[in-house]
Write the structure tokens for this entry.
Amino acid sequence: MDAGAAEKAAVSEDGATGKSGEVTDRADTGAARPKQTEIEADAEGTIGAEFGDEVLEAEPKRSDDVKDKSSDAYHAKVTAKAGTTAGLVTGLVKELRPKQWVKNILVLAVPFAAGGILDPGILWHSVIAFVVFSMAASGIYFVNDAIDVEADRQHPTKRNRPIAAGLIPVPVAYVVCVLLLGGSLLISGLTSGPLLVVMAVYIAVQLGYCFGLKHQPVIDLCIVASGFLLRAIAGGAAADLRITQWFYLVVAFGSLFMVAGKRYAEVKLAMETGAKIRKSLKAYSPSYLRFVWAIAAAITIMAYSLWAYSIQEDVYSRWGLISIIPMVIAILRYAVDIDKGVAGEPEEVVLKDKVLMVLGVILAGCLFLAFYL
């Protein structure tokens, strides 16, 4: 047998290579399977991949899957209640987004760090701050979704939001928004003048975000991050507490770190899947967002370390210094989730990462020992 015939026989027997050495569509494609599995895992966000890597698009879900929120069947199930009292009540409760209220626990941060969380009076004012922030945040959700109703109806999953799905008429959404925002300001004014100022600033900034600032690059990052900072300030304002500036720097840049991570995940998902994103996100490159969250993480660690040293000087406890260890590890752990492109909503990231939850408990325990023992 000559060399040409031997080569043909080898190719025929192997059945896995073509002229350029690429994998063909024959049955024996086992050599390609490990790489395909890796790519699929990467698309799920389980391994860290850089932009430009080959990504295998996931197999589309069946359009009649009722559990798939992007399916027509699920949308039909949601809109079936439109125009009914039950649908309106369900829509109002859902539009309040009570799951998002967990963010407002941040109002307890200043009373806790000031060593007064066990004081009944301070705790009561903190609870009021939590309530008014929950009311204001829910009111902003109503106005935001009412403004974006037409755009949401063109989105595969956002069309299921109560207002876009027709469960809540747009005029009703605006009325509820006014009641929630007005009630938040009224209760704040009756509680504390400084709390009223904080809530007024928060509402004004968030309304500006809804009416156009969310489309401005960098500005949108700062506004979202400022929401977390204002929550912390509100907790101190409600009970008239003072705390070192290092603490507020930790909250400010820690918030920016998480927000930049969320935007990084959104941009990365869009580049990998071709999903549509808002105008402001198109202005961000992955490298820029990496730059932002890396700097924010560094400043957060530095500010926390300085705050921890001030704790030692103020309350003569080493537990503040010890708390630097779980804090730094938590930042680095969260950065792993960001780098994978799976850092969506901060509360969801924390709840899904058991290691982060354990680190959070250890951190809180160290600070409790520092302030209350």
